[in-house]
């Protein structure tokens, strides 16, 4: 191996890019090279967009969605049904459901699922705030839109137990979601159909 | 489709990320979400690294390598053999050859290869500066380390013709480079072996 390095600035950029999901050292180098070739058209704008997003975007203190405002645009929208809360694992699931146009209520982001293997316990998830929100008088339905994975379904059962006794209907997505499937990988039609035929949990 | 958007800041970030090689709209969303989750540890530092690299890094006016200094660290290094120039297509090929420790001379980055299909002609490549450099009295060998593709080999023949008449030996990499192979995809051992057994072009 040579002791040449492309310089600390490029090496650091490659190291950071290699931490992005789906990129390894080799693809990080390709991305770095592409960015260096397109400094004005892509690298500068991307630096600004990242910096602006890192500064401005915050988690909604009500639902956990990411937005430039708190409450987020969905929690603040007057046109959305205030009586239904859709519980999801991640903000990416909100994006997927919104792309599908599947739901017109509000969301709650758990920030993950219970996982004994990964050491994720109830206290690690955004559950306390969900119980508070679910107890509000206007809430009539909680949709548990969790992934159809073992951990997702374990978490849904756990939440059903915790929500038991409240005057709300608890539903989950129809079995249109393939077993083992993750919401963010489904096409819009499947998601919309699964939402429409949601059923009591 | 819903008319909800994740906000102009996030949408712009996703659009820019989707322009990176190997990323599409879906993986760009995953990367954006990952960055937003790791704002302090990854998103901020990446924004800074991009901004710093975009500001500081420039193309070496001698060889075309990318570095924070001009001449670049390789052109300026006193320990490198000043009598051999290795001609490559892109800066990524310099990185690959340096990782392999295959070469101790200096480089020349063409910035691509001749390609009638893509409309790349000799004037579009960094060839004039190569002819100047090759004519200097200290130069004894020019290694044409171009990809073993049709366009790479066409370009090598073209350069051999242009360099003909100069008092330099023109070599190319040994056939250890697989036909159709691109340098940046080879393992270090193959590259080093191909370099060692380079032969007259
Ligand atoms: Zn919200
Ligand atoms: Zn240089």
From TrEMBL, chains A, B:
InterPro entries: DNA_Rcmb_RecR, Rcmb_RecR, Rcmb_RecR_Znf, TOPRIM_dom, TOPRIM_RecR. It comes from the Bacteria. PROSITE patterns: RECR (PS01300), TOPRIM (PS50880). Keywords: DNA damage, DNA recombination, DNA repair, Metal-binding, Zinc, Zinc-finger. May play a role in DNA repair. It seems to be involved in an RecBC-independent recombinational process of DNA repair. It may act with RecF and RecO. A zinc finger (C4-type) spans 60-75. Belongs to the RecR family. The keyword Disulfide bond does not apply. This is Recombination protein RecR. The lineage of its organism: Bacteria, Pseudomonadati, Pseudomonadota, Alphaproteobacteria, Maricaulales. SMART domains: TOPRIM (SM00493). CDD domains: TOPRIM_recR. The keyword Iron-sulfur does not apply. Gene3D superfamilies: 3.40.1360.10, 6.10.250.240, RecR Domain 1 (1.10.8.420). Residues 83-178 form the Toprim domain.
């Amino acid at each position: 191996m040579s002791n040449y390095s492309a310089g600390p600035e490029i090496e650091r950029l490659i190291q950071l890019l290699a931490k992005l999901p789906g990129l390894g050292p080799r693809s990080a180098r390709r991305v770095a090279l592409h960015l260096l070739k397109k400094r004005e058209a892509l690298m500068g704008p991307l630096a600004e967009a990242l910096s602006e997003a890192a500064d401005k975007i915050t988690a909604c203190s009500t639902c956990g969605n990411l937005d430039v405002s708190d409450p987020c645009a969905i929690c603040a929208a007057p046109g959305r049904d205030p009586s239904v809360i859709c519980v999801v694992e991640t903000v990416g699931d909100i994006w997927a459901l919104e792309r599908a146009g599947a739901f017109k209520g509000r969301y709650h982001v758990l920030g993950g699922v219970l996982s004994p293997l990964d050491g994720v316990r109830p206290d690690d998830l955004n559950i306390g705030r969900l119980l508070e929100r679910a107890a509000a008088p206007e809430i009539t339905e909680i949709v548990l839109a969790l992934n159809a994975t073992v951990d997702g379904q374990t978490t849904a059962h756990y939440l059903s137990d915790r929500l038991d006794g409240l005057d709300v209907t608890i539903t989950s997505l129809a079995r249109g979601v393939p077993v083992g499937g993750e919401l963010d990988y489904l096409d819009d039609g499947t998601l919309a159909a699964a939402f429409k035929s949601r059923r009591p949990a």
